[in-house]
Amino acid sequence: MRYILFERLEGRDSAPALGRIATGASEIEVFDLPAVEAARGVLALIDREHAGDPAPLSGERVMIDAVRPLAPVPRPARNIFCVGKNYFDHAEEFAGSGFDSSAAQGAVPKAPIVFSKLPECVTPFDAPIPVDADITTAIDYEAELAVIIGKGGRGIAKAEALGHVWGYTIVNDVTARDLQGKHSQWLIGKSQDGFCPMGPVALAADAFDLETARIRCWVNDELRQDATMQQLIFDIPTLIETISRGITLMPGDVIATGTPAGVGIGFKPPKYLAPGDSVRIEVDGIGVLENPVVAYRAAENAA
């Protein structure tokens, strides 16, 4: 089952609604939730499940092509946990890019590299990725599978970790490479406004096949990234075990699991994003996340 937070196309100011989409269906079954609760996206469903009060369906059905998707976790309660250098080929390309402050320790990390993105940088399907030339001239894309935690905990064992996953979505870990290098850390270069497109839906954990799912990214019509989850250096259970060792994971936390080879800095010369570009990410079973790249002032007007 896929879950979607959406606005109806007939009015930009219409209240967000939350629904579910059965596999292969073209209609959304809408949940009967107050607008304020629905606006929290799948966080509202997770909280209700923990309270033993699952959200009821309203009986209303809406055609998928009549809605505008919003990010399924529009405002994470905390920073998004992110993982660097977590695909073998990307670890090699990043180590040779000149932006990797950990390269002296070897291309492939010995333990997960965990950093974060601010919750305010989350943005939905089709929202502009802003290019502010006064701040950065080296904006890169990173296609990633994101985990949504359903059951919190501290000291979660690897063998039990997938039982704590509520579902999955797609994120684009947009990065200002020049800021990443200038500050010798990753928060500023990865948390600029609009730097975390997410969506278009969240897929229930039991409907996602980690063994076979592929992740792909196109910039305009050029396929740049193509990998399977089997190419992760540290798998999802390992990431959950690592992060929860001393940090209590909470329901609704989001973990972005890393990006495959093919990012802009992997090319010689680098292929950075520019206004007029479009970034399209597809993950099997979840769908397609696509966002235009727009000059900053134009992006403000489009938002």
From TrEMBL:
UniProt keyword Lipoprotein present: no
One Gene Ontology term of the molecular function aspect: metal ion binding
InterPro entries from the UniProt entry: Fumarylacetoacetase-like_C (IPR011234), Fumarylacetoacetase_C_sf (IPR036663)
Keywords: Hydrolase, Metal-binding
Pfam family, one: FAA_hydrolase
Domain spans labelled Fumarylacetoacetase-like C-terminal: 80-294
Gene Ontology biological process terms in this record: carboxylic acid metabolic process
Similarity section: Belongs to the FAH family.
Stored PANTHER family: ACYLPYRUVASE (PTHR11820), ACYLPYRUVASE FAHD1, MITOCHONDRIAL (PTHR11820:SF7)
Protein name in UniProt: Fumarylacetoacetate hydrolase family protein
Lineage: Bacteria, Pseudomonadati, Pseudomonadota, Alphaproteobacteria, Rhodospirillales
